[in-house]
Amino acid sequence: MAQAVRWTHPLSYLNSDGRRHPKENSLATATLALGVVSVVCAWWPGLHVPGTWVGIVGVLTGAWGQYISATTGERFVTIIGLGAAAVGFYINMMHGGFLT
């Protein structure tokens, strides 16, 4: 029988199995934040060095978060952040890379 899903907390989407996953949730949100920072740094070519480093850290964090994720919500947030970090990383590499 289908039942209505009730979310009482913003992180309840990440904990769809009813259990807490603090490490997995932290990695998912950190990956999303690193991806956003990397993409924002890609808008300004002068910020390519920190944007590149943040992007590569976001990709590595996202890969580890994807490896240990427990729910579909965590995987969704991790993949969005991982994609953003990768795009930001590549655009920042185009602007000059790690040490220019």
Keywords:
100 residues; mainly alpha; 3 helices
Q: Could you report the average pLDDT, rounded to the nearest whole number?
A: 87
Segments where pLDDT lies below 50 for 5+ residues? none
From the alpha carbons, calculate the radius of gyration and give it in angstroms.
16 Å
Assembly level: single chain
Global morphology: elongated
- How many alpha or pi helices? 3
Helical amount among residues, as a percent range? 55-70%
String of helices and strands: HHH
Query: How many DSSP E strands?
Result: 0
- Spatial gap, N to C terminus: 59 Å
> Biggest sheet: strands, sense, closure?
none
Protein name: Integral membrane protein
Keywords: Membrane, Transmembrane, Transmembrane helix
Organism: Streptomyces tubbatahanensis
Transmembrane segments: 27-45, 51-69, 76-93
